[in-house]
Amino acid sequence: MSGQQIPSTRTLAKELGISRFPVLNAYAQLLGEGYFEGRIGSGTVVSSSLPDQPTLPGPHGGRSTRILSGPRQSSTISAQLPGVKSEPWLQGRAAFVGSQLALDHFPFNLWSQLLAFRCRRIVEASLHYGHPMGLRDLREAIVSYLRTARAVRCDAEQIMIVSGSQQALDITSRVLLDPKDRVWLEEPGYTLARYIFMMAGSRLVPVPVDQEGLDVAAGRKLCAKAKAVYVCPSHQYPLGVVMSASRRLQLLNWAQSTGAWIIEDDYDSEYRYEGAPIASLQGLDRYSRVIYIGTFSKVLFPSVRVGYVVIPTDLVDRFVAVRQAMDIFPSNLHQQVLSDFINQGHFERHIRRMRPIYHDRLNALVGSLRKDLAGTLKVLASGAGLHVTVMLKAQASDEAISRRAALQNLWLWPLSICYLGSAPRQGFILGFGGIPVDEMPRAVRRLRAALQEK
Question: pTM of this prediction?
């Protein structure tokens, strides 16, 4: 009880039959934390400021049980986002997971050696706060790669290192957009990009995608003066089409004439299996209207969490200001290792080694789908990337099928949830990167069984 007198340290030590020193230490700790207080003439008493009803340990671990008073509400925007584990295709690892890669072919020993080398040679300078744009050596390495592989026109001062493409989109949206600004999004499109623009308070304008990519004329009719457009021209997600040259020029001309920004997400352009590499939209841009985003998650491994943004020169200071407000600067260690990996030639060798492996897996998946499911699914064949999109020929709910398939350890991403509009097509986005060629036919047979299940 508050105000209750506490025995003296000497008395309590005698009653417990222990030395007085631990009792003195305990009393000092309780006094310091405010549980006890000393009163002149009364000795030590229980603090009068303690609540009448103490918080008791809960039934699970050491968590406290608290009574909630009144409704507890999150923000309206956050309430629109799906929970991380709300659907089975967002959980765990299984066949057809879009994010799985052929990690058994990654040069782990080499990466470990580079990591160990950097860990053994940590210098004081690397422990201080870094530059918001990221490590200079890595930015220069990325510039060299982008100029030769993607025809991107930039220098190191325009490169910002970020924690993957999601952070790149987050920073970009904060720099370019005010609440209620309109943004064109590809329809269907990348759902996580949609969530970024939702959190920015943007008004989303779904613009249809056809065999030539984003339909710029349709976008003009829907909203001629949008503030920005998010687009994946080299390998559209999820349909896999490549934006034609005429559409690219139309998009660039529209951006210049209206003052709009183009956000180009080049998430997996390294893996193209047919024809010459597709040059970036940024490389065609004469007006500096394109913000170019790339990531190493698809070419190395997802947990590396390193991506980059190529920023128009006049926006660099705004990007730096937002970056400093968000998380100041990126972590140094993985930047240093990745810089070594690129500069020593390992990155390009790894890409050259992986292309035929993924090409074989793509051919195995498409061949098995056409053999076993030709009457059920329409395959949208793609010559790039790490996923294949298929359409259901019969009327059925792709989400319902995906939930059933999850019970068979199949991870099917429903195509319909990639649509923002009210008339989505039904199908699936099938990742093939993590499935060896000899296991592909069995995985497709399991898919067939899941589709036939009622």
Answer: 0.85
